[in-house]
């Protein structure tokens, strides 16, 4: 059996950096037509803007650093294109002269009805890369929602589109009795968000909590399943040393999202191989706040051919004894036609 079925990870996930022009701006070079695009202005303190093709561009953006419902602005992202996307003049997605980061995922470039769960859903699922976007309407009663992946998700991120509620995350390293909030610096907490039931190869479970299942509200879920050589969703334990914990992935990372799940007042953080092109990887953005890009060594990593290694001692990334959850996507697999090498 081949080590990985994904020979070119950038066909399914890609970071695209660009410079804003304050006007209509067609961004190319993504390499595919994205179904989910997450944009952050690196230069200015502004919101993270998230768009997906299932909700459609007319539904507007969701903001990972706020609990706001979705909102539309004609100057935001206006279209998903064959090799990228088009944005208007809004500073959050296209500030004139500002450095911008976008993270892009390929779904199905289309949708399908799904009735696998007790709650019907509309799904854009890429079963090769293990990523799906799931839209559904809440019932207010515990139920299940079909995700379309054909394999068990390792991470699920849910947002109530209709009203002001937090972003709820399921992560396999925390289990189904716990949740953690993408928009907050809080540690993980125990609750019935996932109805104390782990996802299966066809559905994920939700309780009656309004953030994931308020009656008649529209909700969106982003679901991820591990694919060898392409994606990994796990945890590591901090050691409080600059000779930090090494985490094996089986690939050179292109993207790393992580959070201290043990401690409050710690940020979610994103590193990627486009903003930090050599070690140490220091350039990071915080999905739970609007801050500008930080580039100090306080939360730094080495990106290696087969994983990542913490190189600082800050509580966000490597406090001794703390549990950190992560989501990682590959730049290159460790084994394959073009095997990863250290940088």
Low-confidence stretches: none
**Largest sheet, order of strands side by side?**
8-9-10-17-12-13-14-15
Summarize the biggest pleated sheet. Answer: 8 strands, antiparallel
What is the strand content? Answer: 35-45%
Q: So what's the overall shape?
A: globular
Tally of discrete structural domains: 3
Category from helices, strands and their pairing? mainly beta
SSE pattern, N- to C-terminal: EEEEEEHEEEEEEEEEEHEEEEEEEE
Please state the average pLDDT score.
96
Q: Roughly what percent helix?
A: under 10%
Specify the number of helices: 2
Q: How many strands?
A: 24
Radius of gyration: 19 Å
Task: Explain what the structure shows.
The chain is mostly beta strands and 343 residues long. It folds into 3 domains: 11-105, no CATH class; 112-224, no CATH class; 232-333, no CATH class. It is 2% helix and 37% strand. Strands 8-9-10-17-12-13-14-15 form an 8-stranded antiparallel β-sheet. The longest helix has 4 residues, at 91-94. It is globular. The mean pLDDT is 96.
Could you give the topology of this structure?
Blueprint: E1 13-19, E2 25-28, E3 36-41, E4 49-52, E5 77-81, E6 84-87, H1 91-94, E7 99-105, E8 112-114, E9 121-126, E10 131-137, E11 143-146, E12 155-160, E13 168-171, E14 178-181, E15 189-190, E16 203-206, H2 210-213, E17 218-224, E18 231-237, E19 246-248, E20 251-260, E21 269-272, E22 301-304, E23 307-310, E24 323-333
Antiparallel strand pairs: 1-7, 2-6, 3-4, 3-7, 5-6, 8-9, 9-10, 10-17, 11-16, 12-13, 12-17, 13-14, 14-15, 18-24, 19-23, 20-21, 20-24, 22-23
């Amino acid at each position: 059996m081949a080590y990985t079925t994904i020979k070119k990870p950038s066909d399914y996930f890609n970071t695209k950096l660009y410079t804003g022009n304050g006007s209509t701006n067609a961004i190319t070079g993504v390499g595919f037509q994205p179904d989910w695009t997450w944009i952050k202005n690196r230069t200015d303190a502004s919101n993270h803007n998230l768009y997906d093709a299932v909700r459609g561009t007319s539904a507007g953006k969701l903001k990972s650093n706020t609990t706001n419902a979705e909102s539309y602005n004609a100057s935001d992202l206006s279209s998903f294109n064959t090799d990228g996307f088009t944005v208007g003049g809004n500073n959050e997605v296209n500030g004139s002269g500002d450095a911008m980061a976008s993270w892009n995922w390929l779904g199905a470039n289309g949708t399908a009805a799904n009735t696998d769960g007790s709650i019907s859903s509309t799904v854009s699922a890429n079963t090769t890369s293990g990523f799906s976007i799931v839209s559904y309407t809440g019932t207010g009663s515990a139920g299940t929602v079909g995700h379309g992946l054909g394999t068990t998700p390792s991470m699920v991120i849910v947002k109530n589109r209709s009203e002001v509620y937090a972003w709820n995350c399921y992560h396999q390293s925390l289990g189904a009795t716990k949740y953690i909030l993408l928009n907050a610096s809080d540690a993980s907490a125990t609750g019935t968000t996932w109805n104390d039931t782990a996802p299966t190869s066809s559905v994920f479970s939700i309780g009656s909590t309004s953030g994931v299942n308020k009656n008649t509200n529209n909700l969106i879920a982003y679901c991820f399943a591990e694919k060898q050589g392409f994606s990994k969703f796990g945890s590591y334990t901090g050691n409080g040393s600059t000779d930090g914990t090494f985490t094996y992935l089986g690939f050179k990372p292109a993207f790393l999202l992580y959070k201290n799940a043990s401690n409050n007042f710690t940020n979610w953080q994103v590193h990627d191989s486009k903003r930090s092109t050599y070690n140490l990887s220091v350039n990071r953005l915080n999905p739970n706040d609007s801050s500008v890009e930080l580039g100090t060594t306080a939360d730094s990593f080495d990106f290696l051919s087969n994983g990542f290694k913490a190189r600082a001692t800050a509580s966000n990334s490597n406090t001794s004894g703390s549990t950190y959850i992560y989501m990682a996507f590959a730049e290159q697999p460790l084994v394959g036609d073009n095997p990863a090498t250290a940088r």
